[in-house]
Amino acid sequence: MQAGGISLFHKKSETGQDKNSFIKRANCIIISNGSLDMNAIDFWADKFRILGHRRQRFKGRLLLEKKTALSQLSSQTGKMLRERFGKGPESIFISYNEHGITLHFRNFVSAVEMILLDKQKGEAVRETRQMVMDVLLPDLKEFITQTVGIAIEEIYYDWDLEDHSGIMIGLTNKSLDADIQEKYAGYEKVHQQVSEVTAHVQKIPDHIYSFWTNPRTLIIVREGLLIMLEKELINTGYENALRVAKTSLEKKLLLHDVDMEQAIGRTVTGLYLDWDFERDRSVLVYTFK
Hints:
Blueprint: H1 19-26, H2 38-47, H3 52-85, E1 91-96, E2 100-106, H4 111-118, H5 122-148, E3 154-160, E4 165-171, H6 187-201, E5 207-214, E6 217-223, H7 228-235, H8 239-256, H9 260-264, E7 268-276, E8 281-288
Antiparallel strand pairs: 1-2, 2-4, 3-4, 5-6, 6-8, 7-8
Helix pairs in contact: 3-5, 6-8
């Protein structure tokens, strides 16, 4: 079994199903605030006849192993960033489920970057970070799988250089399936408003879907939104210029024209945005109070 998985069982159940396969599933149904999804745990515990004190031990073991895995991932991520940037984040808040994982960095800026930011050289900071992240991401992607047991297919990231924060989003195969939509209250209004903003800047996305990784972090995935002019700019070598312009314009509109208070009754505290131009896919992350 992969590192980070739970090895409470070693035998097959009477139904012939491998209990380790359940453990891998169970490691993703513990919600992000560190408590257990009791209904889901009890359902599977019943299925595999885990009763009495063994059930309580089982729940405790799941929670402990998740906390241990998140601690290991946070520590290793901070170490990787320190080794490459000279300074790591002050804190890393990690949450995950079967759709994906988010790593939220706070107070992440080096002394050299502070000098560049003071001289209004924010794009130089972004370009340098992009080069470093391109080297770091394959190792981090593998470590995420080893520690928390979810296979990451794609990784996106963005920085808020004003408040020295950043976020990294890893998407699983399930999160890339547009037909699987988390039915939270207000999601249709969220999608409608985001689609309208996207259409104003580019065109209505071919697909849009969203999910939460924790009660304060909403991931929105848009697919099929590039227009012909943008594709030509990318093909002729102007990808970086396009990325800079899109980041500035879209963030302004997504913060001003998408009313999360009206859609889901939440107050926005941050917005992060990244693209994969080759796949014609974009990932938004709204954070809330």
